[in-house]
Amino acid sequence: MPALRSDPVAPVRALPGPAGRARSVLGVALVVAAAVAAAAAGPSGTALTDVGGALAAARAALDRRAWPEVVAALDRGLRFARAEAPLVLSEVRLVRDAHAGLGAWTTLPTTLPTTGKDGAALVEGRTLRLYVEVDNVVAAPQPDGRQRLALAVRGRFALLADDSSREELGDKDLGRQELSVWRTTGVHSFGVDVALSDKAPPGRYAVTVMVTDEVGHKTAERSLAFVLR
User: Fold this and answer.
1) CA distance readout (Å), 70 to 64, 76, 77, 158
2) What's the CA angle centered on 203, arms 199 and 209, to 5 degrees?
3) DSSP run (H or E) holding 102
4) Cα(19)–Cα(99) distance, rounded to whole angstroms?
5) Distance in angstroms (rounded) separating the CA atoms of residues 154 and 209
6) Cα(160)–Cα(225) distance, rounded to whole angstroms?
7) What does the DSSP 8-state code read for residue 65?
8) Three-class SS of residue 111?
């Protein structure tokens, strides 16, 4: 292949109403989340304290039915938790259109699954268009109040043979995603176009997308197969 270039049993007397159900479900969720946080005492005691404080604030607001405060406290706790959680590539897809925002993509047609093989995206031409979605991205506060994100992206390519063997074709730098935003949720998406050599033979390939969060110092990868016509 080709040279490549990058261009988360008591009887019930009566069912609660919607608000009661919401408080009940959220209350259970808060208790479970607090227990998980306590049981997962990892290396960062500060993070556990921050998450625990946010959950306590959410519980107190829940008791007062102060829903905006509940949302704000849970959002704060989630930001603390995402900073400690591993990086996750929740979506890596070959798509038809240019990146249009988080969760927005149009998938390519796929081959039918066969024995021992999943379906694979059908790629016409010699350009791969990837949609990538990353969870638990860490942002660095800037002096002007914005948040800086920095993601380095690489791709590892392989040609897949009918006998399930593979020929490794090497890695390729697919660029960096760096931006400053006023608000971040810890989830980021982006698009990457990868131009393949005109000499790339038709066949079944695999690409492994590798993303490094340069602020959070963590890495994740995810693979998918595609068929080049």
Assistant:
1) 9, 10, 11, 48
2) 90
3) none
4) 38
5) 6
6) 9
7) T
8) coil
Give pTM, 2 decimals. Answer: 0.76
Q: What pLDDT digit, counting tens, does each position of 39-65 carry?
A: 444 445 566 678 889 999 999 999 999
* Helix, strand, or coil (residue 206): strand
CA distance 187 to 181: 13
CA distances in angstroms from 226 to 103, 121, 175, 197, listed in the order given: 21, 5, 21, 16
Q: Which parts of the chain fold into alpha helices (H)?
A: 18-39, 45-63, 67-84
- Give the model confidence (pLDDT) of 97-154 as tens digits: 999 999 999 999 998 776 567 789 999 889 999 999 999 999 999 999 999 999 999 9
Per the CB < 8 A criterion, the answer to whether 169 and 115 are in contact is: no
Residues constituting the chain: 229
What's the token pair of residue 96? 């038809």
Q: By the 8 A CB rule, do 182 and 217 touch?
A: no
Query: What's the farthest any 2 CA atoms get from each other in the chain?
Result: 71
